[in-house]
Amino acid sequence: MGLELRQQLKLSQQLVMTPQLQQAIKLLQLSRLELLETVQQELMENPFLDEAEVETEIREPEKLTESQAEEELVRTADWENYLGEFSSTSKQSTARDLEVPEEGLSFEARLASKPSLEGHIGWQMRLSDFTERELSIGEVIVGNLDHNGYLQASAEEMAAMAEVAPEEVESVVLRVQRLDPVGIAARTPQECLLVQMEVLGFDDPILVSLVRDHLEDLEKNRFKPLARKFKISMDDLKSYIELLQTLDPMPGSHFSSTEPHYVSPDVFVYKYGDDFVIILNEDGLPRLQMNSYYMETMQGARNKEKDYFQEKMRSAAWLMKSLYQRQRTLYKVVESIVRFQREFFEEGVTKLKPLILKEVAEDIEMHESTVSRITTSKYVSTPHGIFELKFFFNSALDLNDGSQVGSESVKALIKQMIAAEDQKKPLSDERIGEILQEKLEVNIARRTVAKYRSAMGIASSSKRKQYF
């Protein structure tokens, strides 16, 4: 078979992701803080981008009546100057109070750091009569604690790390367990509670046995068998349990490094009359414009410089266009959500309807992927609290009349019922399903109730039951 060259025409479709398109897609899915960082970075790197100054409107002073003028004088008068030496603090002392002695220090250097568990234990060991060898073993022990204060390594493993005998590690562990917080460096909850009981002087044999041998029975509310075994009344058992509840099974949790997550809403939805007003949160977001100086400089630039200037100018123009498109898309998506979920904005979570991305995408005539990206890490402030935009998209449950109800509404009702239940007779998953059938006429199985309850972090009825 001979080889030969041929020309052949072939039609095909392919998506070419230009850098500008990639940037536009990236901007869609950025959170508010990430967007601010991206814009500030572009302002630093692109000379054609400039931050527009916000013009303040100057209004003519209003004509005031005599009484209004007196009130304005009382409100705005410089009473410190007027009172002089008769004021409680002089201007000189006020100025001295405002002086910053740490003028040359950075902002971070003026703040006290949050105490850590490692630092707290290490500080106590150095103030105690630990030898240098014991201090090095203690550092290995502290380095193997989890966020609740429990040891995550065996004595043999820590002995290998510190290059000592396991007996020496055990000796130091016993001493560390009696430092503050008491019970730290325990291997099990039983060991943690027993150490605390020893330090506090709780040496009752029944109490010690309850912790050492029957902690699981207490967790599962098996109170009657325990009362029979120890031949005590339920009231006596209740007093033992109340004493145990004063102990801390997770002594290291107070030093947890987890920080609260603060959210700045991207959109505000306010009720005004019979309608809802949507306002985008543009606080802190720079208003971009082209830098006039570089625009003029580009006119007389040489070829190589002109190519660079044109590239930067196109980049700046595309960024401004992408930002506008992002804000416009966000507004349209929130506007569509408000239309679909109007009953939620009127009455609350229990009125949340089932909604999918496709419905919003068809409503605003955009692709589902665009709606998915714009709802990622975006938050909206509503009359009923701050919610992530993803919250408004939830699955549907069928009602007896053929209509549907949102799964989040069902979860909210389950939470309300459990909060209002009799704690001595908690509602079972089956009973919750029956109540939902009566109230909403919704077809929901017991296992679905259990799944929703577990997703909300609510324990089963047997664990929620209180016997005392």
From TrEMBL:
Keyword terms, alphabetized: DNA-binding, DNA-directed RNA polymerase, Nucleotidyltransferase, Sigma factor, Transcription, Transcription regulation, Transferase
GO biological process, alphabetically ordered: DNA-templated transcription initiation
CC annotations in GO: DNA-directed RNA polymerase complex
Record has Transcription as a keyword: yes
Domain RNA polymerase sigma factor 54 core-binding: 107-294
PROSITE patterns (UniProt xref): SIGMA54_1 (PS00717), SIGMA54_2 (PS00718), SIGMA54_3 (PS50044)
Keyword Transcription regulation annotated: yes
Annotated ranges, domain RNA polymerase sigma factor 54 DNA-binding: 307-466
GO MF term set: DNA binding; DNA-binding transcription activator activity; nucleotidyltransferase activity; sigma factor activity
Family the UniProt entry places it in: Belongs to the sigma-54 factor family.
Name under which the protein is recorded: RNA polymerase factor sigma-54
Organism field: Pseudodesulfovibrio alkaliphilus
